[in-house]
Structure formats: structure tokens, C-alpha cells
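Discussion board: Methods & Data

I've been asked by a reviewer to show the raw model output for two of the constructs in my manuscript, not just the figures. I'm not sure how much to include, so I'm pasting the format here to get opinions. Each protein appears as its amino acid sequence followed by a line of C-alpha cells. Is this the kind of thing reviewers expect to see in a supplement, or should I convert it first? Here is construct A:
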Amino acid sequence: MRRLIDLRKGHPKAANLQHQRIALACRQAASRLDVASEASFPLQYTIGSFGTPRFLGRLTRFLEDSYGGRCFEDGLLTTNGVSHGIELACGALTSPGDSVWMETPSYFLAHQIFVDHGLKVQGVPSDAHGLDTDALARMLSTAELGPPPKLLYLVPSHGNPSAATLPLARRERLLALAEEYSFVVVTDDVYHLLDWSRAPVPRLLELDVSFQARVAKGDTGKPGVGKDEAALAAAKASANAAEDEEDDSYTNFDRDGAKPSSGGWSGDGRVISLGSFTKILAPGLRLGWAEASPALVKRLSERGYMVSGGSVAPFASEIVSELLQSGAQAEVLAELVADYSASASALIDAVKASGCLELLAEPRGGMFAFCTLPEGMTAGEVLPVAERHGVVFLPAAVCAPTAPAATFERCIRLCFAFEEVAAIVEGVARIKAAIEEIQAASVRNEPQTTRQRTA
């Protein structure tokens, strides 16, 4: 019996799970544990909710190198991943009965998080270029969906499931609308670094006026540090020199009472950027981050769960900090981009050659492709036949719970990250075979008089 090819799961393939690198990081972290010192490896309750200082410092440098721009350490909060970040945003910034809007289609499992908080979930149309900001502007101005939302959620880069990337002009307009109508944009940026377009669009957070104001004012992003260049250079030198020493920086690291280091800057910002090591290292670590203004991340950190337990995943954070320090995470990222780029190219070629599937947008990053089936055919009809042919995919309608059922009934999501290239090509061929079987059966079952009139 031939193996079932899985183009449905949005998972990394087993070969891309970093067992050996994480094992090495565990051994490096264990050597710090052997010192039996809290300064070397903290096991105590964390003193605040933001995360361990070693991890946050190294994460800041990694993100600056990877994004090619500024990242402020006092704007980072450790999370258990993007879903946890969404949960925190809902709890901190909404109340039951409030509205949250999300692009349609979108990451289908986010919907349940909003529903669990008693929120009214509304959909905003999207196209091959992501969220339709013209439609959003109309919906806001006419109040056709009711009052403006408290939150708007989207996957702006290499969308799940659409593979679309929101262009710069739309990003700027979205932020202008967020400012005008006073809502917070929650960006699921988990695929932003999985980019082989060679021309990545800046994250929405980087375009937020409050973020840009901090950059312009020369903020260090380090709690309690001044903003002038001399202080910044001294702070960086001191941090680098002290990082591997046994000192009391862990017990002294407390931002709960600290004010932003911007010397008077007080903008709350309109964007929360959520990232995760799930897609760029290993899902089992359950480790990610929220990035926003100090005011917004402080609100997230003040949730009762965070206050009671302190920062999340401190043990995993210490292990991942080893990968960040060694540069191994950057190596992993480069390898993943090369692998997924090759897989995406194979999928694009196979879909085009099939003659029966149409891509919404050619993937230039991420893990997914969004395809349309032939006219008159639905994903629900094709899926069981495709499974008999040995392949499965995700019907796109599940990614649009707020849309009418027929809106995406012809659409499917294909993941190119879970299977090897040969299996991806064969999987598309099996989908084509399933489509042709249904088409042939349709012709056989068509009444003879209808066929005669068509002829």
C-alpha cells in the first residue's frame, strides 16, 4: 500500500527539527547548571513577567540581525508561542462582547482563541496581496460590521493559508486606519523570517509611528539606560563583558517599575508583533515572543497568569539562548529558507503543470500555497477521492469561519514544508488524478440528452 502524502499539516518536516543542535545547546546550558549558581543558570522564580535577561538580550540581537533593523529589548515579552501571544492580547486589551476582526481567509486556529474570550469575530476580505485595506476602510467608515474592533488580526507576510504578503502601501494605510479608529493590529509574524523574496517588506511594527519615533530619538531599548550614543556604546560593552560572568544581574532585572528609556516618549503604539521559534527551530520548545511598545508589552505582562507564575518558559529560554549566542539559530534559518524555497518552487511548477489547479499567489516565503479547484468542484468533494489516491490537503473553507460557506468551497491549502520535494510533486499529481476521476464520473453520469445538446 502506498504511503499517504500529507500536504495538509502545517508542520516542519522531521529532517528540519534541530535535534542535534538543541542537544548541543542543552549540554552547553547544563555546564552552566553545573556551576550551581543562579547567576549562571537561574532556577528560581523569575522576578518579572518579561523573560530572563540573558534570553531577552540575545533575542534582541538575533532579531536585529535577522530583521535588519532595530529591536528594543524593553519592547519584548517571552511567550509560549504565537497562540499564547494572541491569548495575552485578548485578555489584556479586550472584554467579552468586543469585536475582533481578522483577514479572511486566515490562520484557522486563531478563531477559537477569540471565541473563547467571548469576542465577536468578523472577517475582512483579502486578495492575492493580502488584507484588502480599501474594503477595511469602507467597513470602518460605514460601520457595516458595527463599531470598530478592539483588535485586528492578520498574517501580513507569507500568509497562512494565502501565501500573500501585504504590500508596503497597504501596510501604511492599515496603520493609518488603526490610528484613526483606535484599534490594535496583532500581526502573526511567524513566517516573516522564512522569506526568499530578496525584497522583504518591513514589518508593520517597524512602520508604526511610535516605533519610528523611538528609532529617531535614539532610544537604547535597555531599561534604565540613557539614549545618547555614548551611553548606548557603554551599555553594550558592559552587557557583553558581563554576560558570561557570575553576577547578580538576574535578580536586579525588574522592569515592572521601570519607565521606558526614551526620555519622555509615551506612545502606546498600534501594533503587537508576535514571533515564535516554532517554525524556525522546533515546535516542541513552545517558545516565542511578543514585541510592541513598552506600554503595550507591560499590559500583556500584567495578566494574572503572568504575574502569578513569572515569565514563561525560563528553562527553555536558557537553552535557546545558547543557540542565539553561538549563531546556530541563524544557520538553521538559512537552511530552512533554502529548503523551503526549493520545495515551494517544486510545488509551483507542479501546480502549473497540472492544468487543473490555480495559485492565488506564488509563495515567496512561509510554508503554504493557496489553490483553486476547477469550476463546479468543491474541496469537500475532492478530498475523499484524493485520499483514496494517497494524498490529503486542507479545505480552505475552514480558514474562513466568518465567511459564507460557498465563498472558499473551491479553494485548498497545500503545505510544502512537511514533505520532501519528490513527495510534493507526486502529491500534486495525485490531486490531479482525483480531479480527473471526478470529472470523468461527472461525464458518465451526465444525461445523454444533455451531452447531445452540448455536442
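Construct B, same format:
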Amino acid sequence: MNVLLDTNIVLDVLLNRIPWQAEAAGLLAATRQGRLLMAVTSLTIANVAYVARRRPRSEMIEVVRACLDSFDVLPLDRAALQIALTLPGGDFEDNIQIAAAT
């Protein structure tokens, strides 16, 4: 099964955000076991780096590398952004994720 992870789930695991970390870690365990194929968008990678910037630069780089090593990364292009603009949801970032997933 293919799964597109929301930015917050990635942050929960990589930044060990309690209490959500345990549930998110279960998704990663399913990936390691071959039951799931995880993907994120390139926007998620940028958002993770932005949030992790509060930590030492070396930790931010480690978190971004962990994402690149752990997940398929779906690109975003003009077409995906234009589709996101047409979606009915009120959260543009969520719409971008949906457009990339499709």
C-alpha cells in the first residue's frame, strides 16, 4: 500500500513529539516490514527543515537526510500547484499534498 505522509506525522517521528511519536513510529515500522510504501512531497521536506532549524544545523541536516533515506519524495510542479488551487478544501497546503498524491 502506498501512503502519503502529512508533514506533521514526519515531524512527530523525527523530532520525537510526544504523544504522537508512538503512533507515527508504527507507520515507519510498517514501512521497514515492507507493508507500506511511504512518500512525502518536496514541500514536506522543506517544512521539516524549516521546523528543525531551531535545532543545531547538524541536527536539521540529519533530519532532512533521514527523510530522504526513508521516503519516496514526490515532486511539486506548476501543474500540481494549479490543481491545488482548484480543490475545494480551505487549506492550500493540504490541497498541495492532495494534488501531489494524485
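Answer (T.O., handling editor elsewhere):
This is acceptable in a supplement if you add a one-line summary per construct. For B, something like: The first strand starts at residue 2 and ends at 4.
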